[in-house]
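Most newcomers find our protein records easier to grasp once they have seen one. Read left to right, the backbone structure tokens trace the chain's path through space. Nothing more is needed to start thinking about how sequence determines fold. An example says more than a description, so a record of this kind follows:
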Amino acid sequence: MRQRYFVTQSNMTASAGSDFAGFGLNATLLRNLAAEGYSTATPIQAQAIRPVLEGHDLVGLAQTGTGKTAAFALPVLHRLAAAQQRPQRGACRALVLAPTRELAAQIAESFRTYGKGLGLTCTVVFGGASMHKQKLALERGVDILVATPGRLLDHVGQRTLRLDQVSVLILDEADHMLDLGFIHPLRQIARLVPAKRQTLFFSATMPPPIRELAAGFLTDPVQVSVAPAATTAERVAQGVIHVEAGTKPALLASLLTDKALDRTIVFTRTKHGADKVVRSLLAHGHAAEAIHGNKSQAQRERALAGFKSGAARVLVATEIAARGIDVDAVSHVINYDLPNVPEQYVHRIGRTARAGAEGRAISFCTAEERPYLRDIEKLTRQTVPVLDHPMAIVVPPEAERGSGQRPAQGQRQGQGQGQRGQGRGNGHGNGNGRGQRPAQGQHQGHANSSQTGERPAQGASNGAAQPARPGSGRQMDWRDRRRMARAVRAERG
């Protein structure tokens, strides 16, 4: 029987500060870590590295920004280097799956940084980049392949990649992959890789659907948890400002006059909304860039590079595009629009207070968004403090904490789905495809693609399906997430 490792809040502190040298890692890895300024492991690294080195399957639950990437990259690099094998043509030895382009690129960069001098090759493949160049890289075979599920299966389908040589399969941000509807591609990939393999499963949150998904990939896994599921980052000071919808642009510009907001990520629900916020900020003299699914890969990379270098003080992003943004010293996260899926709040504010730093998250909340705030507080088991501001509105306590109504029909608040042929036309669809003509006078453009509010795919129905109404008390299940995700396929790799 395998030994199991359980890490809880009570022993998390004792686990932190472990010296990397104590794990017996390759000397080249240790030199690379020292060159990057890393000498001691974070809690997730301290608890995950040894079981992975021993060859166990592993489930790792940790908040974003706690070093999950190094927790699997370091032991995987060590094991691949020790095996002294060369990859076969058109194959890979280790496969890392990530939900978005940005996260895939970030993971590949970490592997290259930590593995410099080991003689291992690392390639990243995702949508929006040249398929031909990716084919050339895969043709020679690679030690480590980082990929988004969609583009990976494209290569498999074109016979430019085979997965029968995979010895290590890693799923990062598994909860977000489920949100995006990757459940079937993941299961397809699981059938293509060898049954005898090591599987590592990392996630920032672990709702029941994720546990069910993990059970299909893992064999007697070691379980590591350094924070309760859906716990927000401890070092993030949170606050909410109740505001009228029309006041949001002026409120954001006012907050940014404070130089303490020196590197800020602003989250919007829609791609159009992100561009609109950038135009407003530029008009107020604030350097800002937008990153979302309508931007080309080159545009996204330039925006991220400008934000990292400090040329742009503000990065305005949609939820999906923001995954994988790993920028040091992000001082503030501002939720210009509150997410209508509460788990997204955890991921959003995790963009700040990374690597032990302090950070702050400020959310704007309109009357229509109060049910979203209530769902967030229920999930995180925390009350978000109300902040005072001259532009804030006074909200009665009963309206603030329990009697908010879901957004009215005809308001584009991003709670709908906008799938082809799904949902009732009156804005109360259940995703069963039985569209009904909306009553006269109701808004028909209410549909929204997924929880991030991206533009619905062409041909989407006029109805706004709502798998889980805010404040209804019903938690979203995997079917809801799958229905919501279909409308954001443009974001896939």
